[in-house]
Amino acid sequence: MNPPSLFDTIADPDVRTDDPPTSKVAAKQLDVNAREAEVTEALRWLVCASDTHDIQRVLAEHGLRRDRNCVARRLTSLERKGLVRRCGFKDATTGRRTTLWRLA
Fold first, then answer.
1. Which residues pair with 101 in a beta bridge?
2. Exposed, middle or buried, 79 (CB in 10 Å: 0-12/13-18/19+)?
3. Which CATH number is associated with domain 21-103?
4. Radius of gyration of the chain from Cα atoms?
5. Which residues contact 83 (CB under 8 A, 6 or more apart)?
6. Interior CA angle at 86 toward 92 and 35, to 5°?
7. Which of these, 7, 16, 64, 65, is most buried using a 10 Å CB contact count?
8. Which residues have CB under 8 Å from 52's CB, separation 6+?
9. 8 A C-beta contact, residue 102 and residue 48
10. What residue ranges do the domains of the chain occupy?
11. What is the structure's pLDDT at 97?
């Protein structure tokens, strides 16, 4: 097997190609499965369709402080795995539309 070259690309859904090296190191240290399990569990607690803000709030109530960006990334990876699905939209307090999610 040949070692990777500078021209090889490594597909990592948690890191953008233009992220700084510190972000890439942090992403490698992240336990993605644990974060996905937290988001899935939060959706179970919520029972109904919820947005990232609701999921973040429930995680915080259970002692797990996660920012919305972390929650949103876990939702998209869980969607790719078929564990959650988008089920609509609602208007957020900011006036923007937000996606609603539920367990698949």
1. 50, 86
2. middle
3. 1.10.10.10
4. 16
5. 36, 40, 103, 104
6. 85
7. 64
8. 68, 71, 72, 75, 98, 99, 101
9. yes
10. 21-103
11. 92
User: Distance between CA atoms of 85 and 103, rounded to whole angstroms?
Assistant: 6
Q: Which amino acid is at 66?
A: R
Tokens of 76: 């998209």
Is pLDDT above 80 for 82? yes
Q: Give 50: exposed, middle or buried? Use CB within 10 Å, 0-12, 13-18, 19+.
A: buried
Tens digit of each residue's pLDDT (9 = 90 or more) over 26-48: 767 667 788 888 888 888 877 67
Helices 32-46 & 68-80 angle (0-180, nearest 10): 90
Looking up tokens 């609602």 gives 90
> Angle of helix 52-61 relative to helix 68-80, nearest 10 degrees?
110
pLDDT for residue 79 = 92
* Cβ contact 81:103 at 8 Å: no
